[in-house]
Amino acid sequence: MTAPLTPPDQPSSNGPWQTPPKWGGQGGSGGPAGSHSGSAPESQEDWNLRSDLLRAAAVTALVTAAGIGLGLLWLWLAPRVPLISDGTAVFLSDSEGEEAIGADGTFVLLALAFGALSAVLVFLFQRRGGIALVVGLALGALLGSLLAWRLGVWLGPDQDVVAHARAVGKGVVFDAPLQLRAKGALLVWPLVAMAVHLGLTALFAPRDPEQESGVFPGWAAGGPVPGAGSPAGGDAPPVPPAES
């Protein structure tokens, strides 16, 4: 009787269920040599998140600064409300005038224009879009509206009507303070900016390539189908034709 070629405590090299050798040499396991599974995707995701946050912060700062332009235009284009004093009280010089609501309408129209313009510029700045970018745009638009409102009021006519009436004298027409009575106008800019930006992203943003589900890369390239061979790794034996 001869001794077996393969020791009983070692698996055969031709076994169908042999565990593949570890990759990467002594320092690696479960992957090719020199690769660190899981670390590269995480670092790439962190980098993408950091870049998105930086772009969103830049958009927020720039859009907020644009509120200075909105405030100056509102101060320049808003109609003035004429007031007059008789020495004891202050009255509207033209009681039938519509200048009181004209300031709100002017602010809304300017906010519509600024919302559409800021959305287009942000889309051209970053066509890929993203939640962080949209949030930064909306936040910057809201802060810009608040800045425009307070800037226009601050640079406008004196807020102390009584002191202003005493300063100009009796029977002299002077301008009323610039006011924004409809505070909902502050939301026009962010709402329009988000709507326009989302519409542009849906229509013109580049699409990510779609991969068919259930298809392995080797199949699409004409490679072998996993598991098509015999358990030993060779080709499956041909099936003889059935006898008629």
Bulk shape: elongated
Please give the count of helices: 6
Distance between the first and last residues' Cα: 48 Å
| Largest sheet descriptor | 3 strands, antiparallel
- Rg (C-alpha, Å): 36 Å
The side-by-side strand order for the widest beta sheet comes to: 2-1-3
Element string (H = helix, E = strand)? HEEHHHEHH
Q: Roughly what fraction of the amino acids lie in strands? A: under 5%
Poorly predicted parts: 23-41
Count every beta strand, where a strand is a DSSP E run of 2 or more residues: 3
Descriptive account of the structure:
- With 244 residues, this protein is mainly alpha-helical.
- It has a domain at 48-81 and 97-157 and 178-204.
- Helix content is 49%, strand content 4%.
- The protein contains six helices and three strands, in the order H-E-E-H-H-H-E-H-H.
- The protein has helices at residues 39-77, 99-125, 131-155, 161-168, 188-204, 217-220; strands at residues 82-85, 90-92, 174-175.
- A three-stranded antiparallel beta sheet has the order 2-1-3, with helices on one face.
- Strand 1 and strand 2 form a beta hairpin.
- Helix 2 packs parallel to helix 5 (188-204).
- The two termini are 48 Å apart.
- The model is unreliable at 23-41 (pLDDT under 50).
